[in-house]
Write a structure and sequence with these properties.
2 copies of one chain form a homodimer.
Chain A (H helix, E strand, L loop, with lengths): L22 H15 L6 H8 L3 H8 L2 H14 L4 H6 L4 H16 L9 H4 L9 H28 L8 H20 L4 H14 L3
Helix pairs in contact in A: 1-2, 1-4, 6-9, 6-10, 8-9
The structure holds a DNA duplex.
Chain lengths: 207, 207
DNA sequence: CTACTTATGTACCGATTGGAATAAAAGGAC
DNA sequence: GTCCTTTTATTCCAATCGGTACATAAGTAG
C-alpha cells in the first residue's frame, strides 16, 4: 500500500523517474541530526543539508518532519537502540541488567554518533509543535520498560530472580539507571565514568 | 554594578520611570515556560506572553534570551532545585540519598509545575543556537554531582559510609538515578511509580 | 516515437524567529 | 515648572520557519 521506502513494483523497477538517493542512508543522516539536536531544534534546512536532498524530495519520500522523525525512531530502534533486545536474550536477570546497562553506556557514548539517547533527548521538553513527538518518545520509553518487566517475570519463573521480587519495580529501576546514564552521556560525561556506575549497580544488585 | 534585578539606588526609589512588573515574578513565569518547553523550543513570544511584558522590557531587564535563561536557572536552583542542598544536611549518607531521591520525585512530579527537571530537559539536545545553554546545564549537573561527592567524603570520614566506598562513584550513581527519575517524570510517569524506584534503591543501598 | 508516472531543483508562500529603533510615558532632581 | 533618566508599547527589521507550486528531468509502458 505505502511504498515509503521505495519498494519496487510487482516486477522489476518501479514506474517513473527513479529516486536519486538511498532512503536508508538518508534516514541515517536525519537520525544523526535529530539525535544531536532534538526534534524541535532541528530545522528542515538542517535535515535537507545533512541528507543532501531537496525539500520536495524529503516531503515526497517521508511525508513531513514529524513522520520523518517516526521513521527515524523506528530505524533507531532497530539500529543503535537494538542493544535492549540483545540484552534481554541473556540467560539470567543479572546478566540481562549488566548487558543492558553496558549497552546503554556504549551506545550513548559512541564516538562517531551523537552522545546520549535519541529516545531520551529527542523531545524531553516540547512546545505545542513538539508535543506529539514528546508523547511518542514517552511511549517508546515505557514500551522498553514493559519488555524489561516481561523479561524479569520470566526470570522469576525460571528461578534466577527471587520469587518476592517485583518485576515491574525492578524494570523501572533499571530503566531509571539507563535514562540517567543517557542524560550524563548527552552532557559529555566520559564513557569510563559511566561504566563505573554500572559496576556500582552490579555490586549492589541483589541476585 | 549590575542592577539587573531592579535594586534601588543608594537611597529611596531609583531614577527614571519605575518598572511596572516584579522581576522575580516575571522570572518565575519565564521559568515555567523554559521548564516545560526547553530553551530552544521557547520563543520570545512565549516568554513575553507568560511574563505579561513587552519585548523591550524583557531585553532591558534581562539582556537577551540566553541571559534570561541563566537568571532563571539561578532562581530554579534556589527554588524548586533546592532540595539537593537540604538533602545534604541529613545526618547520614543513607538519609542523604533517600532525601535527595525523594526530593527529586517530589519536585519533578509537582502538579502545579512542569513535570521533570529544568536542569535536565532545559537543553539536553541542542542545535548551534542552544549549545551554550546545553553546556551550562551539563556543568550545572556536574556541579550537583560534585557536591554530593563532597557529602559522601564527609560520610566516609564520619564513619557512616564504609571506608572502602568510592564517594565519586557513589555520587555519580545517585545522580544517575536522579536524572533517570527526572526523565520519566518528564514523560508523565506517575509519582507513586517513581517513589517505588526510590524504595528499590534504598533496599539495595549497602550502608 | 508518444503517453504516463515519479523525482528533482528553483522559486515562492505566509507566518514566525530573535532582536532593535523610536517615540511617548512616568518618575525623580532641581 | 524644566531637565534627565528609565520603562513602556508600537513598529519594524532581515532572516528563517515548515511547507508547497511548478516546470523540468528521467525513467517505464505501450
Amino acid at each position: 500500500m505505502c511504498y515509503v521506502l521505495g519498494v519496487a513494483g510487482t516486477q522489476g523497477a518501479p514506474m517513473g523517474r527513479p529516486r536519486e538517493f538511498d532512503t536508508d542512508e538518508a534516514l541515517d543522516r536525519a537520525m544523526e541530526v535529530f539525535w544531536r539536536q532534538g526534534y524541535e531544534a532541528t530545522t528542515l534546512g538542517d535535515l535537507t543539508a545533512a541528507m543532501n536532498i531537496g525539500k520536495p524530495s524529503l516531503y515526497a519520500a517521508f511525508g513531513n518532519k514529524e513522520q520523518l522523525f517516526r521513521l527515524v525512531l523506528d530505524r533507531y530502534s532497530e539500529g543503535p537502540g537494538s542493544y535492549g533486545v540483545r540484552a534481554a536474550e541473556q540467560p539470567t536477570a543479572r546478566q540481562v541488567v549488566e548487558a543492558f546497562l553496558k549497552g546503554t553506556v556504549e551506545t550513548t557514548t559512541q564516538p562517531q554518533c551523537p552522545q546520549g539517547c535519541l529516545g531520551v533527548q529527542g523531545a524531553l521538553a516540547a512546545s505545542d509543535d513538539g508535543v506529539a513527538v514528546h508523547d511518542l518518545l514517552a511511549a517508546w520509553r515505557e514500551r522498553a520498560r514493559g519488555e524489561l518487566e516481561l523479561r524479569f517475570r520470566r526470570a522469576v519463573a525460571e528461578g534466577d530472580l527471587r520469587s518476592d521480587a517485583d518485576p515491574g519495580r525492578l524494570a523501572r529501576y533499571v530503566m531509571t539507571l539507563s535514562f540517567g546514564l543517557a542524560v550524563q552521556a548527552a552532557g559529555g560525561v566520559a564513557r569510563d565514568e559511566l561504566f563505573k556506575v554500572v559496576d556500582e549497580v552490579m555490586l549492589s544488585w541483589r541476585s
